[in-house]
Design a protein that fits this description.
Distance between the termini: 43 Å
Number of helices: 2
Structural class: alpha+beta
Order of helices and strands: EEEHHE
């Protein structure tokens, strides 16, 4: 199966297939990794503003780094699936 790891407003589960957002638990991940992916999506929902971006550069860098870490771990536990990162939320506010 092919999935995208991607955030979107209102999506508490950050996985997408060809036909749109996946239901929670698709793909099936180990419980700890499922919690981490959900926390990553929640951080986006709570801190990213679609007009202004992240509150600061540090938060933007950390969120991207967590996405890349999650992607590596997901690739390790789902070797038969193709997981790509669709990371578009790069803007951040400057002081």
């Amino acid at each position: 199966m092919q999935y995208k790891l991607m955030n979107a407003s209102g999506a508490s589960w950050p996985f997408w297939a060809e036909d749109g957002v996946c239901g929670h638990g698709d793909p099936v991940l180990p419980p700890e990794l499922e919690v981490e992916a959900t926390k990553w999506a929640l951080q986006f929902e709570q801190h990213f503003d679609e007009q202004q971006g992240w509150p600061d550069e540090e938060t933007a860098i950390a969120h991207r780094a967590e996405a890349e870490r999650l992607l590596r771990e997901i690739d390790d536990v789902l070797p038969a699936d193709i997981i790509t990162l669709d990371y578009w939320e790069t803007a951040y506010r400057t002081p």
